[in-house]
Design brief:
The chain is mainly α. 37% of the residues lie in helices and 9% in strands. It has a three-stranded antiparallel sheet, with no helix packed on it. Strands 4-5 form a two-stranded parallel ribbon.
Amino acid sequence: GIDDTRGTLFHDIARILKEKQPAVALLENVKGLISHDQGYTLQVILKTLTRIGYQCNVPKELIEHGTPRQIQEMAKKMVLKSTDFGIPQNRQRIYIVLWKNSNNTYFEYPKPLGLPTRVGDILEAKPDPKFTISDRLWEGHQRRKVMNAENGKGFGFGLVTPDSIYTNTISARYYKDGSEILIAQKKGNPRKLTPREAARLQGFPEEFEPSSSNMQAWKQFGNSVSVPVIEALAKKIRKNLLT
């Protein structure tokens, strides 16, 4: 937990906001921020933001004097799922929308689009065989999944087919072994996503050119955000907070 934000990356974010004073700011983080240190970390962060003049959907009075549990309940409404915006990825993130205009008291987050998702829609027709994982790596994935299950960890590789509704969340470590998202193949071992498929899994347009390095491209998309989610948020911000 944190008693204040000094010494953290968030402190620098708050410093930039205080100096530049943008009308609106959008902060994104993992869903686990809500539960970290039983909600106390989130309360400290929101206190910092409101004390430099920003509002969010959690009222300032509640941020200052409410309990972490009360703040957690309101913050859950700031979580958006990529699957709700047409992306076949089980990615849940908290998006904290901040604004300075005192005439606005509440921000209406975008609603789910209700679009069906299917992993096959982002897959290439003829992926390079080099993305198929080796016998040794595949055996290691299977062995670790059994060991984790025996130890009650419950974490292992994530194997999907073209007909799966969504994949696990892609991360910046995907380049290491691809364990969170493996594509089953009719013959042989499963394969990793290609960089183009990783781009599609985050909603990047086809004309976007990833790094020529596969490792850097996978890092890039694992560290990124789902573009359609940000697009939906941006449209709501422009309509409700910047007019």
